[in-house]
Design goal:
By secondary structure, this protein is mostly helical. The protein is about 75% helix and about 0% strand. The chain has one domain.
Length: about 60
């Protein structure tokens, strides 16, 4: 039972970490875009990389 609870807690922590990192990435992207340091092409490329990483079966596994 303890192993199940630990695994569940780890999953919740990783989901929370992923959400926090995504929010941080969005804020950084918005700040750089407003400062004129990013172009639409770079944002599109970064978004595609992020989507590929987020959907990979090998990422975020404890």
């Amino acid at each position: 039972m303890a192993r199940i609870l630990l695994a569940l807690a780890t999953r919740v922590l990783l989901i929370g970490t992923r959400i926090a990192l995504l929010l941080l990435a969005r804020l950084l992207t918005a700040a750089l875009l407003l400062a004129g340091l990013l172009t639409a092409g770079l944002i599109l490329l970064a978004g595609l990389v992020l989507i590929r990483h987020a959907t990979s079966p090998f990422c975020w596994t404890p």
